[in-house]
Amino acid sequence: MIVSLLFFPSNVFSTPLCSSDNEVQPSECPHGTVTNRCGNTVCAKGLREPCMVYRWERDLCGGGTFCGCGFCMGCNNNLQCWDCGS
């Protein structure tokens, strides 16, 4: 592992390649849709779902929520609320 980090560091820390064939329909997404870093429409994450597992995922929480403490928190469109301390 150390050898691969020394000789191939860009492969270890790079973001995945973009693909346009992963688009979803809004009706498939209970928390709405968001646009990912590649410009694709993807399902948004809901309250208490992990976010920012990778640095490029931080803006994938649904309406009214945001990524904090590694999970989507805040109040969603149904006025259900959650924060890291509750």
Fold and architecture overview:
It holds the Pfam family Neuroparsin. With 86 residues, this protein is an alpha+beta fold. The protein has two helices and five strands, in the order ααβββββ. The chain has helices at residues 2-7, 9-13, and strands at residues 33-35, 41-43, 65-68, 71-75, 81-82. It has a three-stranded antiparallel sheet with strand order 3-4-5, with no helix packed on it. Strand 1 and strand 2 (41-43) form a beta hairpin. The longest helix is centred in the first third of the chain and has 6 residues, at 2-7. The protein is flat, with a radius of gyration of 16 Å.
Compact summary:
The chain is flat and about 35 Å long. With 86 residues, it is an alpha+beta fold. It has two helices and five strands.
Approximate strand percentage: 15-25%
Helix content: 10-25%
Structural category is alpha+beta
Indicate the low-confidence ranges by residue numbers: none
What is the count of β-strands? 5
Strand order of the largest sheet: 3-4-5
Helix-strand sequence: HHEEEEE
Shape: flat
Q: For the CA atoms, what is the radius of gyration?
A: 16 Å
Q: Tell me, rounded to a whole number, the average pLDDT.
A: 78
What secondary-structure arrangement, pairings included, does this model have?
Blueprint lengths: L1 H6 L1 H5 L19 E3 L5 E3 L21 E4 L2 E5 L5 E2 L4
Antiparallel strand pairs: 1-2, 3-4, 4-5
Organism: Scylla paramamosain
InterPro entries: Neuroparsin
Protein name: Neuroparsin
